Amino acid sequence: MDTIPILQLDDFLLISIQVEMHDRLALQLQDELTERVVKTKAKGVLIDISSVETVDSFMGRMLGNIALMTQLLGAETVVAGIRPAVAITIVELGLSLPNVRTALNVNSGMAMLRQLAGTSVGGNGHERQPE
Amino acid sequence: MKLPIINIQIRYEQDIVYVRQRARLIAEMLGFSRTDQIRISTAVSEIARNTYQYGGGGRAEFVVQGDNLPQIFAIFFRDQGPGIADAEKILQGNFSSRTGLKCGLVGARQLMDYFHLETGSGKGTSVFLGKTIPFDKGLITSRLILQLIDALEQSAKQEPLEEIRLQNQELMQALTELRKKQEDLARINTELEDTNRGVVALYHELDEKAAQLTQANNLRASFLSHMSHEFRTPLNSIVTLSAILLNKMDGDLTLEQEKQVNFIHKAADELSGMVSDLLDLAKIDAGKLTLERKEVSIVNLFSSLRGMFKPMLDGKTLGLFFAEPEGLPLLYTDEGKLAQILRNFISNALKFTEAGEIRVSARLSKSKRSVIFAVADTGIGIAEEDQSRIFDPYTQLDNAPKTAFRGTGLGLSICKKLGNLLGGTVSVKSSLGKGSTFYAFIPVRSPDSARTPLVPAENLNFTRPYPVLVIDPDQATHALYNEYLGHTDYYMMSARSIKAGREFLMQIKPLAIILDVLFPEEDSWSFLLELKTDPATRHIPVIIASMLPEQNRALSLDMEDYCSKPLSRQWLLNKLRTLRQRVPVKTILIVDDQEVDRYILKGLLADEKYRILETASGLEALQLAEARQPDVIFMDLIRSEICGLEVLHKLKENAATRHIPVIINTSKILDPAERQALNAKVVAILSKNTDSGAILIKNIQATLEKAMQALDKR
Q1: Which of A105, B11, B340, B590 has the most CB atoms at less than 10 Å from its CB?
Q2: Residue B179: what pLDDT?
Q3: Do A55 and B42 touch (CB under 8 A)?
Q4: Which ranges carry the Histidine kinase domain (chain B) (predicted)?
Q5: Predicted complex: ipTM over 0.85
């Protein structure tokens, strides 16, 4: 069974989706992620979908749900690395991702998260490139 | 024209991913731009999910449509689900799904060039997605499609995950089938268990039924043996008493009275016969009848039948003939039951024959394995259609003249059953108005054991009641004595050696022994001494017939007489007569709780010079026996405060009464075991159930004489 690894980076959780996303895997990710947020008291979540080619309505909804849920748990979610073709498709599909912040790549995504986390930005001086 | 590429089943969630991957791959091969590839795979993903989630699974068919440019890459989805109820609304965009779940359809339409949806409640759903294939690759031909399919297969093989997916699917399918089979098995198992429970319950019921049946059978058996006693006792009283009246033992009857008593006698006789028939049939049915096989001489059988039916022919214009049986072997069978069959046949023939004759014959069958008895009459005959049922119980034919032939209708059915019991069959040949012939096929059968008794047990030979034992080595002497004693009241038992003589003496007490003292190998004198010292034989008179002049020695040994050979007939008969007549006044004790039976017995014994003591009580009987020392005791197997068997036991235990001969006179039907136990202790067993009073009187007198003979010699 595929699993998607969830990495901890300071106060943030980093997820990079490298496998073909199917529905059960998406739901599983959603469960694991929320648990990890609670456990690690993470301030932000970064989801890298640069390898994902298909974002359909289910996937879109899942991303939206994750963002909403982590917000409720006190963590902001940023989705980074959406491909141009995927972006086109998302728009044409009529998907809107109201709660989801997006960033061009992981770097800017992390920056966004740090900024959102406010006081803790650079607080402990452990900035790293996740890739 | 449609060029089919691939046809994929959507059954599991992973299939959605697979379908969308195939869609992207095919789109790529068909020359779609990267963006279009993602559009197509996204749209396919949407519809495939719908097919899986709402349609419960279905198929996705990938084809290339169109003979000319522009061609279309088309994907058809079909499912057999419940259909989409508000498809129109969804497509018009008016539909707002709170979950956003159904926006997939709209999105897919927007992503593709062509979209068509067919759905209806209960009809399933089919969706057509189409996108125009870019021209730059030129016309897609079927050859190109084949290449494409090849490439697809290659790519599938290169992906181990895909391989696993396919295997997985097969496995899942196999598992599903297995589960179904298991369910079937489980169901069958349950059914079997139910059936089993039913069978067990049935067995239980059967067991119960069997127990009930056994109980019912036991009840029936005890009922029968009880009835045989209770019914017969009063009937026998009536028969015997009326016989006494008719014998005018207590004075003459008026003519009218005699007629009336005769009717009473006849009616009681008839009733007694019916009761016997019923009991016989019941006993046969219950398997209670046991065979007592012994050697049976047909000549003797015929002669006793002849004697029995003789009185019944009086006043009839009817002849009863017994063909002299010739060259027939001895039968080894139950004489009583064979006689009963023939008796029934003959009395039947007598009933239905007004005039003419009845012929009884016997001959050997062709196979020589059985003897065929035939009773032919010239009576009214039996119609063909009735012949099959006359052997059934309670069958009486309508054409029988009403009043004359009453009966239970059991006679022939008893014959049939008895015949079967003896290992044979019975049958009938008849034509209406001309007469009937009844047959009994009885197997000859050799005796199972070689040992046959020299003198049949309980054989009270009425015509020659006085046995005379001749012990002599010389055959000529035996022949001579036999001639002497022919046609007299004596019958001779021949022993050619002292050893044979001893064997006879174990079984019977002769009136006299005629002994030749000159035995070559044995010492006759020591045998004589033995005879005279043994209390059992001491009283038997011994006549020495010898050529040796040993008279003095003989008489000194308390011999009855001595005679030098050859004896004359006159001398022998005279001698025997004096021995016979040596009957002094005797005391007889009658023990019977039935007053009427005591009365009958007393009546029968009244002519003789007997002193009669009587009692109904067993205890009193014991006292009387000891105090009065009767010469003979007649005893019923009474059921007073002390039972008959116990009385008998006590009599034989007491030294003062042990020697008194006891005669059992009972109406109880004794089984062979009881009979044997009694035989050891008593002189004779008489049945109160004997057919006629005349036979009863004869029986009693004969037995009494037998007992007296034993007494005389003391």
Answers
A1: B590
A2: 93
A3: yes
A4: 226-446
A5: no
